[in-house]
Amino acid sequence: MVQQEALQVERDAAPAHVPLVSLSDVALTGIYEISKILTAPNRLETTLSSVVNLLSSFMQMRHGVISLLEDDGIPDITVGVGWHEGTDARYRARLPEKAIGQVIATAVPLIAENVASHPAFSEADAAALGATEESRVSFIGVPIRVASRVIGTLTIDRVWDGRSVFRLDSDVRFLTMVANLIGQTVQLHRVVSRDRERLMAESGRLQKALSELKPSRERKRVYVDGIIGDSREIRALLDKIMIVAKSHSPVLLRGESGTGKELIAKSIHELSPRAKGPFIKLNCAALPESVLESELFGHEKGAFTGAVGARKGRFELADKGTLFLDEIGEISPAFQAKLLRVLQEQEFERVGGSHTLKVNVRVVAATNRNLEEAVAKNEFRADLYYRISVIPVIVPSLRDRRGDIPLLANEFLDRFNRENGRELAFDPDAMEVLMGCGFPGNVRELENCVQRTATLAQGGSIAGDDFACRHNECLSALLWRSPAEIATTRRPMEIPLPVMPSAPPVSAEAANSNAVARLPAPVATAPAVVPARPATSEEEMTERDRLVDAMERAGWVQAKAARLLGLTPRQIGYALKKHDIEIKRF
């Protein structure tokens, strides 16, 4: 009845040409806007303060306060418009103690049209709310609940000017809906907070166990299938893998491209209690978001065009085993939220389905990206970062364990000989060439270098002159040259890549020394050159010109241009960015 009278007053007061907006439309818009605030990845106090601020746009109010309680009933968070650190007491002073206690005890909204005459408000409460004989103040308080338990209150107060008509019934319903959304958000924040504390405690316990694992020369060497090396760095990594594998906690592998993170992930699985379960892998950067969701969670028949049947996703396939998510730092913020829920709850629905599936999966993620910087820039969710980084494992680059180069190179050559029926070996000067290379592509690049050189070798052994860098045909070598060398030896057809710190070449005799693994990046033995379109004696193309020329010939497809120049896609991407070359779209 009150609502109808209020609506009639508005109709009578509104000009004929002004269309009236229904109360339900206003409430729906308000709920929509508030839900967007509540789902943003911000601090809880900041989020709640923004909700109170937005409330004033949808209803008449002077002050609004959200007050949350600890489990023992003690006030935990009290915020209002403009909240900042240390202002809780200011907002708490606006709360009438007896009225708030009644809302919490009864779990029923409280409506006071005039706080000065309402029994739930003392004179001090009325004075704190600014009620006087000339200024009538009304008050609405609704409980914030999680299930059947009241965890706080949402309150507003307003001053009646003698003319306004307040829609109390609809206001209470609207505030109750907002309070329900707040309750769900608070519950999620508290679950994530407790989860993060538990995960950090577990991480601390494991890190302590690792720190107590003192290096010992007498300790028996750990062997893991597929991982080759005897340097101090690789031994430390293997020791850590043995400890990490015993737990079920998520692992985050950090390291450069080509260091063997997938091999490490598989080793963790094979040494774990889940070894008899499946090991499933997925490169997150290789798929668009729409396909990635289907790949991870599966889909039902008819979920989208082409879905002719139901299909299991990687999480389902990895049940009771391990799921390796490579390049996890490349997924979008929107998909990060979906992934977080699965990692926390170990449950999900297939795309196009409504049935919740429960799985038991250990996640091993990998990235070569600086996730801490991404979190600071709001490009990567902090809660997802804490979830996947319970046990961080750093995979060393090849230049940080240079003593392992001879072992790796000989293993790759032996593999080549077995596959091709040959009996090649390295000459001493050949090993010196390998020890003098920086290998920015790490183990993967070393393997490619050995295979390429062995394939083209004419004699019964591989000599130093057989390597591409001795004939100005290896771009990687240029990565490890000094600026002075580049300035004096640059040729018309060279494409110089980013210059790294230089150091003297390392001899083969020093290969097995522990000190070798700590040497800085070395200087290449020869300049690197990339064949491109022949230049005339009068024409010397600049580095930028060569890049543009290759892109033009490749139809502006970076992968094709990279092959023309002998670069990797990542290297050409860096070069295009360095020279500010805009990619043409056709």
Oligomer: single chain
Strand content: 5-15%
Helix content: 40-55%
- Kindly name the structural category: alpha/beta
State the end-to-end CA separation. 64 Å
Radius of gyration: 33 Å
| Main sheet overview | 5 strands, antiparallel
Written overview of the protein:
- The two termini are 64 Å apart.
- The strands form three sheets. Strands 2-1-5-4-3 form a five-stranded antiparallel sheet, with helices on both faces. A five-stranded parallel sheet has the order 7-8-11-6-12.
- 42% of the residues lie in helices and 12% in strands.
- The radius of gyration is 33 Å and the shape is elongated.
- The chain is α/β, with parallel strands linked by helices and 586 residues long.
- A hairpin with a 5-residue loop joins strand 1 and strand 2.
- It has helices at residues 2-13, 23-38, 44-55, 88-92, 97-106, 123-128, 168-211, 232-244, 261-270, 289-297, 314-317, 333-345, 371-376, 382-388, 405-420, 428-435, 442-456, 475-478, 483-489, 543-553, 558-565, 569-578; strands at residues 63-69, 75-79, 110-112, 136-146, 149-160, 251-254, 279-283, 322-326, 347-349, 356-358, 362-367, 391-394.
- The model is unreliable at 1-21, 215-222 and 481-539 (pLDDT under 50).
- The relative contact order is 0.06.
- Helix 15 crosses helix 17 (442-456).
Summary, kept brief:
By secondary structure, the protein is of the alpha/beta class.
